[in-house]
Amino acid sequence: QHFKNMLGWVLEHPLLIVLVVIFLYRLWRSRQPFPETPGVESIYSITEWKTALTENKLMIVDFYATWCPPCRAAAPVFGELAAKYKGKCKFFKVNVDDVNDVAMANNVTGMPTFIVFREGKEVDKVVGFNQSKIVALLEGETSK
């Protein structure tokens, strides 16, 4: 009898059940390890950030968050681009939740944000994961 009552309630509230399932899936997905990005160096402090800015002629930085679905989608692509442009441009990533001061210093308000720096100065910025814009930016900057 109890099972029939519960089944009846479920059948009367299908939208609620769908929303709960979506919520649980997203919660589970967000707990999965963040995709690896070979060839991309992580910045863990403001000191490392300042060193990276002074030691690299041309660099691109992925400002990301582990809970951000577009950031997860961008990570493997960013790793592929790091391999493609190896020796021409240095690739870094900054977790905005862990190194918030670096994100704030660069006015990062949306994730992912990709910023290109030449000799320590910001050259251009792409907010959101737009692979064609990032590639065009890298093509333009590495050909200079």
Give a topology summary.
Layout: H1 2-12, H2 14-30, E1 41-43, H3 46-55, E2 58-64, H4 69-84, E3 90-95, H5 100-105, E4 113-118, E5 121-127, H6 131-142
Parallel strand pairs: 1-3, 2-3
Antiparallel strand pairs: 2-4, 4-5
Task: Describe this structure as you would to a colleague.
With 144 residues, the chain is of the alpha/beta class. The chain contains six helices and five strands; from the N terminus they run ααβαβαβαββα. The protein has a five-stranded mixed beta sheet, with helices on both faces. The chain starts with a helix and ends with a helix.
In short:
With 144 residues, this protein is α/β, with parallel strands linked by helices. 50% of the residues lie in helices and 20% in strands.
What distinguishing features does this structure have?
144 residues, 20% strand
What coarse outline follows from CA principal-axis ratios? elongated
- Residue stretches low in confidence (pLDDT < 50, at least 5 long) are none
Oligomer: single chain
Q: In total, how many beta strands?
A: 5
User: Total helix count?
Assistant: 6
Mind describing the biggest β-sheet? 5 strands, mixed
Strand coverage percent: 15-25%
Strand order of the largest sheet: 1-3-2-4-5
Q: Could you give the order of the helices and strands? A: HHEHEHEHEEH
- Termini gap: 75 Å
Integer-rounded radius of gyration = 20 Å
What structural category characterises the helix and strand content? alpha/beta
- Percent of residues in helices: 40-55%
